[in-house]
Write a structure and sequence with these properties.
291 residues, alpha/beta, seven-stranded mixed beta sheet, 8 helices, 7 strands
Length: 291
C-alpha cells in the first residue's frame, strides 16, 4: 500500500505565489511533450509529469563517469594522514554543485563530518545570498540549495553583494578570513565551492582561492561549449607561473588535477543554460526562494 500526501512546506507556498507559470520547475521536460496520449489526463489530475523515456530527453540526476576518481584521491589522502582538500572549479552550469553534493554524501558514508567552504555569494549551497561561509555538514545534502539541512555549525562572512567583480579585493579578504578560521590539524575532508566565472577577473579570483586553500585535489569540470571553460588547465605549474594581484609571493602548490566532462549537458542541448541542462530555475529565482 502506498500512501501519497501533498507536501506542504513554506518554500513551496512561496514558489506557488511568486513564480510565474513559465518559471515553474519542470524536471522531466513536460513543456517539451507534444500532443496527447493515454497519460495526459492522469498528469492533469495529479499535476505532475509521467516520465516517458522514449519521448523525453531525461534531466534526471546522473553521476559523472569519472567522479569516483576524486573519491579515491580523497581516500588516499586520508590514508596518508592528511586532510583532503577538494576545490571544484568550472564554468556556470557545468555541475559543480551536483558534484560537491555527491561527494559530500559519499564522504558522509565513511566520515562523520565534512567541512564545506562555500565561496559563491551569488549561488550559495547553504545560507543567504551575499555571504560566503564555512559549514560543518553532518547530514546528506539532497535537492536544490533552498531545502538543504542546517549545518552543525556555520561561520559566515558578509560580503554584501552577489557580484564579486564589484569589489574583488574585499572578496579576497573575506575568503582569507574563512581560510584562516579552518580548524587546525583537522583531518575532516574539506570541499570548496567556487564561482562559475572563469575568464578575466574571475580566473584571477579563482586561482587566488586555490593558492589560499592549498588543496590536495582540484576538480576542473569542462563543458563542450568552449565559452564556459577556463582557457587553461588549472595545473600547479600553470598557477605558480601566474603572478598574483593580491599577494607578493606565489606559494608552492602540490595537488592532483582531475578534469571531468560536464554531466548536465544533454546531446540536444544548444546552450549551457538551466533550460538546457537540469530544468532548474535561474540563479535569481533560487536566490529569492532562499531568502
Amino acid at each position: 500500500t502506498i500512501l501519497a500526501r501533498k507536501l506542504s512546506e513554506p518554500w513551496m507556498e512561496y514558489m506557488n505565489k511568486n513564480l510565474k507559470k513559465a518559471e515553474k520547475l519542470s524536471l522531466f521536460g513536460q513543456d517539451n511533450i507534444r500532443g496527447t496520449d493515454s497519460l495526459t489526463e492522469l498528469e492533469k489530475c495529479l499535476n505532475m509529469t509521467v516520465f516517458r523515456p522514449h519521448k523525453i530527453s531525461t534531466k534526471l540526476w546522473k553521476k559523472g563517469e569519472d567522479w569516483d576518481v576524486a573519491l579515491t584521491s580523497v581516500e588516499i589522502t586520508k590514508k596518508n594522514d592528511q586532510q583532503p582538500r577538494v576545490v571544484a572549479t568550472g564554468g556556470k552550469g557545468t555541475g559543480k554543485s551536483s558534484f560537491l553534493r555527491w561527494l559530500t554524501n559519499e564522504l558522509l558514508n565513511t566520515s562523520a563530518e565534512v567541512l564545506f567552504l562555500d565561496l559563491d555569494p551569488g549561488q550559495r549551497e547553504f545560507g543567504l545570498p551575499g555571504y560566503i561561509s564555512l559549514s560543518l555538514i553532518v547530514k546528506p545534502v539532497l535537492g536544490p540549495n533552498f531545502c538543504q539541512p542546517e549545518p552543525k555549525w556555520e561561520k559566515s562572512v558578509y560580503f554584501g553583494d552577489i557580484n564579486v567583480g564589484n569589489n574583488p579585493r574585499r572578496y579576497i579578504e573575506c575568503v582569507s578570513l574563512l581560510v584562516k578560521s579552518l580548524p587546525e590539524a583537522s583531518k575532516t575532508p574539506l570541499l570548496v565551492n567556487t564561482m562559475g566565472w572563469c575568464q578575466g577577473l574571475g580566473l584571477s579570483l579563482n586561482t587566488e582561492i586555490i593558492r589560499k586553500v592549498k588543496p590536495t585535489v582540484v576538480v576542473q569540470l569542462n563543458s563542450r561549449f568552449k565559452k564556459k571553460n577556463y582557457a587553461h588547465s588549472l595545473s600547479c605549474e600553470y598557477l605558480m607561473s601566474k603572478p598574483s594581484s593580491w599577494t607578493h609571493k606565489t606559494p608552492k602548490l602540490s595537488y592532483s588535477l582531475l578534469e571531468f566532462n560536464a554531466v548536465p549537458e544533454r546531446k540536444d542541448a544548444i546552450a549551457m543554460t538551466s533550460k538546457h541542462s537540469w530544468g532548474i530555475p535561474q540563479a535569481s529565482i533560487l536566490r529569492d526562494i532562499q531568502t
